[in-house]
Each structure stands twice: as structure tokens, then as C-alpha cells.
Amino acid sequence: MTRLRDIASCFEGIVPSPICTCSGDGVPNVTYLSIVHLIDEQHVGLSVQFFNKTRRNILENPRAQVILVEPETMNQYRLDLQFERTETSGPLFDRVCARLEAIASQSGMRDVFRLRGVDVYAVIECRPIAGATTSSSPDSKQAVDRLADLTLQLSACADLESLITTALQQLATGFGYAHSFIMVRSEDGSRLYTLASHGFPDSGVGSEIAIGDGLIGTAASRRMPVRTTHLTRERLMTRVVRDELLRAGDAGRLAEEIPLPGLPNAQSQLVLPLEARGQLLGVLCLQSDIPGRFLAADESFMQIAARQLSASMLAVGFGTAVQTPTIRVESPARTTSETRIRYYASDDNVFIDDEYVIKGVPGRILYKLLQLHVE
Question: Does the pLDDT of residue 95 top 80, yes or no?
């Protein structure tokens, strides 16, 4: 019997998996799953989104068979499964829900794709269908050494600019993550804006997204990593459902699709929350135009890197509540009133009379000009 951990890439959703079930009177049904979730060495999970034929069959006859495909070798493995239970809350449900919610939000179908539960199956047997070839596994020691070097360099940075620059450069040179960007939370906590990027033709600095929207916003709102391995296929699947709803006159359930920041042809994406001392600072986003670029091992290592980056951001003063004194500017037209201008040094936000105006480098420049004006 093949160990599930030895074929971990089969559970990334890069290649769809056929599943066969039978009704209570023995009528078979075969369909495709977008992803099979690995729970542990004896269990897998399947998301419950629609009351379809597969779901009805399982409730009548709790046996199923799934074919998994290893993307790097195209080896195939047969899983014989026994349905055990449905989970509607807890860590497993939250992890599956975060990914589904992110994809649904990105395609404007948050009200269409809702996770009802996760069906947990016991794995009776896992066998290769034919002679399996051996795939090369990544050198975990090298990855640990690169991670140690990254954390060492981050801890040596004395200011935010050098910290962010060092982090993105090391992700590219040390880990091969050529395209990355960091978004930080706005002062009012409702949005994320791009602070820095690496590897893109345009920096995108200052671009915004609402927390809770799309892949990036969902990772921030749930404070959980969100990883996708084949965005093109997921876009196609959601597009089919979206077109069907439009044809059926049910467009009221659809929202505007959210364009993905960064690479226009991104295939894989890993978004990690930047969080320290219970405070959400922002997100770290990695992108690639290669399907399956970011696997479970990448997520594990980058979670450690993100935690170190978050702690280092706090250490250099980012995210603190410290702000510069309020500038008061007299209004020529109203001699009895004044305009209050507040500047937050942690992320260069500028507020005028409690209304947000601008942030980032432009905010820093505006505040400097206002200081000169007052002087």
C-alpha cells in the first residue's frame, strides 16, 4: 500500500481526480473532483458544495473510489474510500472554506459557491494503478538552510525600507520566487495597499484591494494562507457556472469579478498573512506563471518566513500606534476654523479632518510639503 504522504502532490488539485460512486440499487456514477484534501495518513476530505448525484449516492452507499494523478510523473493511484462523517466546523472546515471562499470571491460568486461541509473518508487502500516511476523530492535541508539565511538577514535590517527590499530579494535569489509583493493594511483596517513588489514590469505600489475580497483579501480577513495551484482551470470552472447563472436570469447572485493583482497570466499563487502580536500588518503574496509552483512544502516554509518578516516589521516600528503631531492649517476663507491634518508615520497615511486622503510615499511627500507650508 502506498503512503499518502509519499504522493502529496496528488492532493494539490493540479490534475482533476475522477470519483466513482454507486447508488443503493447499484447504479454507478462517475464525475470529476477539482481537489482531494489530504487530512492524515488514513483520511482524505471532499468538499460538499452542491447536493449532486455523488452526494446522494454516498448517503445511500458509503463506498467510493478515486483516481489520483501525480502531476510531475503522471503516475496514477487508486484510493478505495469509506465515508465516515461530515464536518461543518473546525480547523479542517476552515482550511477548505478559506480556499473555496477565496476563489468564489475572486470570480464574483461568493453567494454561489458556499461550503456546506467537508466529507471525511477513511482510506481503505491506496495502490498504484501501473508501475510507478520515482519522482525526485526537494532537498529539505537546503530549504531549511535558505530559510535560516533569510531570517538572519531580516533580523539585521534597521528600517522598513531595507527590511522589505531584503525580504523580496532573498525570496527571489534564495528560493526562486521571482514574483512577489507585499501589501499592508490601511489605517482604518478596511483595505490593503501595495507597499513594495519584486519581479514585475510595473511596481504596482499604491494599488489597493478590500480586505475580504478575492484571494488576497480572503487570506487577510481569515488570517490564513491561501494557496492555488491552477488558476486557469479554476477560472474556467467558475466561468462555466457564471455563464449558466446569466443564462438562467440569476445574475443577481453575481458580483463584479476582481482582477488578480500582479502577473496577468498567473497560474499559481500563495498568499500569507503578515501577523504579529495579534495584529494584522498585511500580506505577502507569491505568484508564478507555472501551474503547481507552490506546494504544501512551500507553504510551510513561507509561513515561517512570513512570521519572521512580521516580527521584524514591528521591530522597526511598522504598525505601531505612534503618529506625528497634528498640523493645524488656518483656512483663509474661514478665519474662525482650521483644518486638522494627521500623519501616521507607520504607513505614511495622511488624514484631513478625519478623512483619509493618501498614503505611502505620496503621503510622506504631501506631509513634508504641508510642514514646509506651515513653517
Answer: yes
